[in-house]
Design brief:
- The protein has about 575 residues and is α+β, with helices and mostly antiparallel strands.
- Among the domains are: about 45-135; about 345-415, no CATH class; about 415-560, Beta Barrel (Cyclophilin).
- The chain is built from 27 helices and eight strands.
- Strands 3-4-6-5-7-2-1-8 form an eight-stranded antiparallel beta sheet.
- A hairpin with a 3-residue loop joins strand 3 and strand 4 (about 475-480).
- Helix 18 (about 315-325) runs antiparallel to helix 19.
- The longest helix has 14 residues, at about 90-100.
- It starts with about 25 loop residues before the first helix and ends in a 6-residue tail after the last strand.
Length: about 575
């Protein structure tokens, strides 16, 4: 993303839980001893040559291998020898560390020693390590792992750390951003994978894996996907299968329109989004109705977005978008302008230029991205950036022209553990346009949590814009015209327990270790973010308000309070 684009070892002993389903209380943090703090501080400082790692490994504290993986880069080479260690617990920790290394993982060693570990060693993250490596040569093995899991209905099997589901997760992470055609995987049993979507425990991760492939009509009949969708029990599984169904084009129209008209909001939102991939008249008429009259702003937003790429010469669609740019709801107006820019840049340009020069920060910020799509617009941004180089809008205009600028920030100094620990005993209160949202910090990402709690306590969250809202995905905040935020600096990832379920709060980044002041609340269960974006907290009160957030909303004020008092 900017989402903007795993430190779970905060307790004594080795706890391989990537990712967990919930958060433990602050008692976990209180058990941390002096040696643990030394390891944590070295990991956050990305100092893999610190003697504390040698001390840890010499004494069999294998959690040091996980920290090395969290550091990444050259530190990952230090993990390689332990992938064939005589102690199975060391191998387990090394595999988890390798998963955190991503593209820096020692793949040759991972592929050379693939024997399953005994249950006594803990969770075996070999499939995750191979998947996160992104190594194409690891995919055949991952396919074999997935095919070896036969459909059935075992009791109490669930993601994330079960041998039955980790192969799905590993293959999903291997292909997550590549959008590869299903035909590139002739040995993968897509029929069995579809059957897993009806099995409690594997249903969501199997459906999620299916969404990562293109050309699904080449490997699965439409009727089979439609049947699987009808058999699915959970809303999140149905929503994922809707994303698969949209690949079947106009043949899916009747089913998608029916789902979009249904009472299950999560599924309805996904179905409206999916209609943007169709061309038939039935779905066109339905989208026009929703875009013009729906009371749910998220539905209107998605309908307008779905209409934008359809039939470039359709004057009714263009006229609807042009009229909606004047809507009183800023999110709807911005969505319409984005669509109009797609269809008729000449009609959209005057409004875009006007917004860029106007007082409404959300509209001005949105206009920058649109101006960057044309040579004339780039000229406007360039002139503004040069004339206002010391202003936030000037900097953002420059970033719109060259996004790489955003990653050029100085790392923040690793904070003292006393401060980090103190914030584990507090909660973050966000008073937003839609209501109050209370967030508890994650004990598995204490440094990241402390960064955002500090932002609130020094008043730098006040006025932050919710500038990126994608229904069934995330609501993201952090944009502000406060010049201090531009100089805040970057923080490091803490990935180990990053399970991006609904209501968890993640750190937005533009690449590894580039998190700063932007964060997002997950409004969908975003499996592909697990192990890639830090979860620094979870919503403990006000989730309904978080789910209703719209682009253009703001954080009116923010503060921290003593733990246990935010939701009172």
């Amino acid at each position: 993303m900017i989402i903007k684009h795993m430190l779970g070892m905060a307790a004594v002993g080795l706890s391989l839980t990537i990712p967990t389903f919930g958060f433990e209380n602050t008692a976990k943090v209180k058990k941390i001893n002096e040696f643990d703090v030394r390891l944590m501080e070295a990991a956050d400082a990305r100092d893999y040559q610190n003697p504390v790692f040698s001390e840890a490994l010499e004494s069999g504290r294998w959690q040091a291998l996980v920290y090395l993986g969290q550091i990444g880069g050259d530190a990952c080479a230090e993990i390689a020898p332990y992938l064939s260690h005589s102690d199975a617990a060391a191998v387990a920790a090394a595999r988890l560390g390798a998963a955190l290394c991503h593209g820096d993982a020692p793949v040759d060693e991972l592929l050379a020693y693939t024997q399953p570990l005994p249950a006594s060693a803990g969770v075996d993250y070999l499939a995750s390590a191979l998947g996160f490596s992104g190594e194409e040569g690891a995919r055949p093995l991952l396919v074999d792992y997935v095919n070896a899991i036969k459909p059935g209905k075992p009791f109490n099997v669930g993601y994330p750390d079960n041998p039955r589901t980790l192969p799905f997760f590993g293959l999903m992470q291997s292909v997550v951003y590549d959008r590869l055609p299903a035909t590139d995987f002739p040995k993968l049993s897509f029929e069995a994978l579809l059957a897993h979507t009806s099995e409690m425990g594997t249903d969501y991760v199997a459906a999620y894996l299916l969404t990562r492939f293109t050309d699904m009509p080449e490997v699965l009949p439409f009727a089979d996907v439609q049947t699987a969708l009808g058999n699915a029990q959970a809303s999140r599984v149905k929503a994922a299968l809707v994303r698969v169904l949209r690949q079947y084009g106009d043949a899916a129209s009747g089913t998608l329109v029916a789902l979009a008209s249904g009472k299950d909001r999560m599924v309805a939102l996904e179905a409206v989004r999916a209609l943007g991939y169709l061309k038939d008249d039935e779905s066109r008429v339905f989208l026009l109705e929703v875009a013009a009259k729906a009371e749910d702003m998220a539905m209107r937003h998605l309908a307008l977005s779905a209409l934008a790429p359809r039939h470039a010469g359709d004057a009714e669609i263009t006229g609807l978008l042009e009229g909606a740019t004047k809507d009183q709801n800023a999110w709807i107006a911005v969505t319409a302008l984005r669509g109009l820019m797609q269809r008729d840049p000449d009609k959209a340009f005057p409004t875009t230029e006007s917004w860029f020069k106007g007082k409404d920060y959300y509209k001005a910020f949105s206009a920058m991205g649109l101006l960057a799509q044309s040579e004339e617009g780039k000229g406007i941004l360039e002139a503004y950036a040069e004339a206002h180089a010391d202003s936030i809008r000037g900097r953002e205009a420059a970033i719109a022209l060259d996004p790489s600028i955003e990653g050029v920030e100085k790392p923040r100094v690793t904070p003292r553990w006393s401060m980090v620990r103190s914030y584990q005993e507090r909660e973050l209160v966000l008073n937003t346009t839609r209501g109050t949202i209370c967030i508890a910090p994650s004990p598995d990402a204490p440094y990241a949590a402390a960064n955002f709690m500090l932002l609130a306590d020094v008043g730098k969250m006040n006025g932050m814009l919710w500038h990126r809202v994608i229904p069934n995905f995330v609501a993201q905040a952090g944009q502000s015209e406060d010049p201090v935020l531009a100089e805040w600096g970057t923080i490091r990832e803490e990935w180990v327990s990053s399970n991006h379920r609904i209501g968890t709060v993640g750190v937005a980044t533009a690449g590894r270790d580039t998190g700063s002041t932007q964060f997002f609340i997950n409004t969908g269960y975003n499996l592909h973010l697990n192990g890639r974006y830090t979860v620094m907290g979870r919503v403990i009160s006000g989730l309904e308000a978080a789910m209703q957030l719209q682009e253009g909303d703001v954080i009116e004020s923010a503060k921290t309070v003593r733990a246990g008092t935010c939701a009172l």
